[in-house]
DNA sequence: TCACCAATGTAATAACATCACATTACCCTA
DNA sequence: TAGGGTAATGTGATGTTATTACATTGGTGA
């Protein structure tokens, strides 16, 4: 696992914005927020995001082409992660379920499928938004 | 459920290409393959895909921005669907797992999250490609 | 000093998706 | 059978997301 001190300048800047934002951001939103820090091109953001995802500090939400800071501790070892994404307010909840993981790995084993990455995303409306 | 006879011309054309293709296609690949059928613009493809997905005849693969024809029978009632996607050959396997579905719905209930759509995609390498 | 490698900067382009508006086809019914 | 309503279609422009290509910088170790 990588610690904050080991991050490069651009990686730190991107992680900082994500960490201080409630909800996911697109790469281009990140770029806009980092223009006054000297960011000029999408690739600067994408490169930082790639590394941060490799380190497990950031996750990509495939169904909305956006990114969130990991809500687990930095030393948390990720298994299969699932996300609950509120389409109304953008709130994202990250969680792990050992049973789900076991079932999906079971399918992979049965089918001799070498699993490299699993995406689980639930879209819907969160409790707060339902109440409102 | 909708039967093939009820599909419009554009919907039939799109489904036809998808059904006769091994593996997923992007919207623009579909467009290219349908140019000689009179297709001229992306929206023609996206509109047809939207309806076909509504009918449950086509699924979107979020992690690769592509679409596949459903491999279940037309009258199959979809629960939560999971996909195994081979990054080497493009093969896609669609399956349902009642336990996974129950666990994810359980999380939603616990968190008072109104679930509208669930995405489960496993990326990796299929048995054939591993053997080769 | 030099070779090497990781990180960065920049412009251009590719890939994916939607908006806005006009037109056509079809069904229902007055 | 004319008129109104709705679904489907055609078309161009635009918006959004992601990658390619190439140049430059900065440190690390022989
Ligand atoms: Zn995490
Ligand atoms: Zn919400
Ligand atoms: Zn299906
Ligand atoms: Zn394969």
Strand-residue fraction of chain A?
Answer: 15-25%
Q: What's the pLDDT, averaged over the residues of chain A?
A: 94
Give me the secondary-structure category of chain A: alpha+beta
Named CATH architecture of the largest domain in chain A: Orthogonal Bundle
Large-scale geometry of chain A = globular
User: How far is the N terminus from the C terminus of chain A?
Assistant: 40 Å
Keywords (chains A, B): DNA-binding, Repressor, Transcription, Transcription regulation, Zinc
Family (chains A, B): Belongs to the Fur family.
InterPro entries (chains A, B): FUR, Fur_C, WH-like_DNA-bd_sf, WH_DNA-bd_sf
Protein name (chains A, B): Transcriptional repressor
